[in-house]
Amino acid sequence: MSPETTGESRAVQEKIAALRRDLHHHNHRYYVLDAPEISDVVFDQMLRRLQELEAAYPEWITPDSPTQRVGGVAAAGFDRVAHRAPMLSLGNAFSPEELKTFHSRVIAGLNDEPPEYVVELKIDGLAVNLIYEQGLLMQAATRGDGEYGENVTTNVRTIRSVPQVLFDTGEPAPELLEVRGEIYLPRQAFDRLNLVRSESGEPLFANPRNAAAGSLRQLDPAVTRQRALDIFVYGLGARQGREYATHSEMLTALAELGFKTNNQWRVFDNIDAVIDYCGSWAEKRFQLPYDIDGLVIKVNSLAAQERLGMTAKEPRWAIAYKFPAEQATTKVEDIFTGVGRTGVLTPTAILTPVRLAGSVVSRATLHNADYIEEKDIRIGDTVVIHKAGEIIPEVLSVVLVERPADAVPFQMPENCPECGNGVVREAGEAAYRCLNPACPAQAREGMVHFVSRNAMNIDGLGPAVLQTLLAAGMVRDAADLYQLKAEDLAGLERLGEKSAQNIVAAIAASREAGLGRLLFGLGIRHVGAKVAAVLAEAFGDVDLLARATTEELTALEEIGPKIAESIQGYFADPEHLLLVSRLQSLGVKTREEKKTVNVLSPLNGKTLVITGTLSRPRPEWEALIQKQGGKTSSSVSKKTDYLLAGTEAGSKLDKARQLGVTILDEAGFLALLKQRDTGENDDNGR
Ligand code: IVH
């Protein structure tokens, strides 16, 4: 073995040991103390990482590795009971590809015979085993480590949806029946519980699953009773008596015996349909009144299940499909400081690439120095990340147990990383700024902002092209863009003639983007897209805005003194005035065309309510109504003049009928508009 290999293998061995130590720790927090420190997703990722390492280095698998056990250990306070048939856990698939791999393995295990699958919701609660003898509930136990669990019979008896006695189906009651299911807390009950706890100053439960576990493992069953726990059952363990041919038959029989099964299960005969069904729940799951963390795919035929058998801890005939992780852990390899268009220095974490919510993430924003200090984020740390607003990766917290001894605290640079000028932190601000107006980073980022989607929306001009144009001295500011010719661009690295033409056409088209987008694109501090639109609407002309007084500005609801001061400061700078006038002379529209309301319209001054499904999106109808001088409201009342009702209209239609409000369908509505359409109704808004 070469020295490198030895070094590498030692590092892997240490990593395996560290992962095992942490997983044991988190298992204990989760199962024994009911006080997890990390999310399940993060736990799953750590476990998976360990599985990967052990798969690559099987010689280091030990019997006490967390990968070799199903779950936690029994807590003090409840009797330990053995399960007659082990309670297994499931392997995970995180993508359609992994489901296909699972399918290939199943087919191979069944001599190329394609199976039928049952797909069920994976309820996010805790597994229980219910033992019925001669039709009577005798014992209920948690899963525990899969072989031994805790006897929670008294508490489970308080759950109303758990039958104490099986229904009489006409057949003799089975001698023994082990029923497996998931106990969960509906989201509404969870919110209520936490509300009560916050009022009485008790610590809050992190999620409904923890709350369900905490509620089930109460030593006083009276407490459990108040918690509104519920159950869905999904399978059988040991049994004597009736046999079943398929899992779906078993689910049907369980429902007939009086159990609550979840009715979203479906049978499919091909993996593509399974994948489609799984995908269909990605968004829909948020409408359920309880949490699910994925779906479970099971081979339907019990004979086929038998043939497939199981690995050390997981059946080969079933798998859990998990939704893309909303959180992930990864390592901060470095922290890089970028300079934005207003000169603000923004630290960004450079991460070991990791999958997160459907994409691979290698950077995350750290916002500012205060944020880093508050979370104590250091280079070398393992951190939990998520996507803020489902888009921007952000560091949430540091996994302190993973901190290496040589982790490096971050220091904000004293000089601008782009121009070398000193940076300052203004009183009361979190941000450090480079105050050099000639800083190349500010020019570049300002241009990136100017062309961005919500500003002038110029396609094809990415940061790299802009950087090249600036570096070559072909542009210095936004106005210069309007003088570019296709032949200037075509010579640039990686730009063909066709893309050059497209870019020039996109620049030309942006002349018509309108005042709101232009104002946003100028990058005036505190003027976001929304404020820019308000200003454009109110002033209608950049020259009027440039001369606006504080009173005029703050008279607008959305504008406070801080924004007003920033706008005035912007237009007090001769450089900015010059830029605006150059944009004007190059044909960029700096005036808003006045929208006139058609006072002769039959809708002028009327109140309308829109309901049901219409042939076009609702905002289009609302805009049309507003242009005609009408108002829209969300509920029908005596003040409603018209109800515009599409198909599948419901209670609003009934209410309008009751109140005698005039009801219009689309055709009726358009006919009404035509009645008095005398030509003033100018669609171009002029
Ligand atoms: S089947 C051998 N079906 O997920 C099959 N499990 O990691 C074992 N779960 O311990 C489980 N909904 O707590 C199955 N419809 C469902 C489920 C489900 C939730 C939980 C259960 C199990 C874990 C598997």
Can you give a write-up of this model?
This protein is of the alpha+beta class and 686 residues long. The protein has 25 helices and 24 strands. Strands 2-11-10-3-9 form a 5-stranded mixed sheet. Strands 14-13-12-16-17 form a 5-stranded antiparallel sheet. α1 runs antiparallel to α2 (40-56). The longest helix has 30 residues, at 3-32. Residues 70-76 and 677-686 have low confidence and may be disordered. Residues 88-90, 120, 122-123, 127, 143, 182, 234-235, 296, 315, 318, 320 line the site of 2-(butylsulfanyl)adenosine.
The share of residues in extended strands comes to 15-25%
Secondary-structure-based class equals alpha+beta
Rg over CA atoms, rounded to whole Å, is 32 Å
Enumerate the spans where pLDDT stays under 50 for 5 or more consecutive residues. 70-76, 677-686
**Amino-to-carboxy terminus distance:** 82 Å
Question: What kind of sheet is the major sheet?
Answer: 5 strands, mixed
Fraction in helix = 25-40%
Q: Which compounds are bound in this model? A: 2-(butylsulfanyl)adenosine
Which helices and strands appear, and what pairs or packs with what?
Blueprint: H1 3-32, H2 40-56, E1 80-82, E2 92-93, H3 96-109, E3 117-123, E4 126-133, E5 136-142, E6 148-150, H4 153-156, E7 176-184, H5 187-199, H6 208-216, H7 221-226, E8 230-240, H8 247-256, E9 266-268, H9 271-284, E10 292-299, H10 302-308, E11 318-322, E12 327-339, E13 345-356, E14 359-365, H11 369-375, E15 378-379, E16 382-388, E17 392-398, E18 408-409, E19 423-425, E20 432-434, H12 440-451, H13 463-471, H14 478-481, H15 486-490, H16 497-509, H17 515-521, H18 529-539, H19 542-546, H20 550-554, H21 561-572, H22 574-585, E21 607-611, H23 618-627, E22 631-633, E23 642-645, H24 651-659, E24 662-664, H25 666-675
Parallel strand pairs: 2-11, 21-22, 21-23, 23-24
Antiparallel strand pairs: 1-6, 3-9, 3-10, 4-5, 4-7, 7-8, 10-11, 12-13, 12-16, 13-14, 15-18, 16-17, 19-20
Helix pairs in contact: 1-2, 12-13, 17-18
Bound molecules: 2-(butylsulfanyl)adenosine (IVH).
2-(butylsulfanyl)adenosine binds at residues 88-90, 120, 122-123, 127, 143, 182, 234-235, 296, 315, 318, 320.
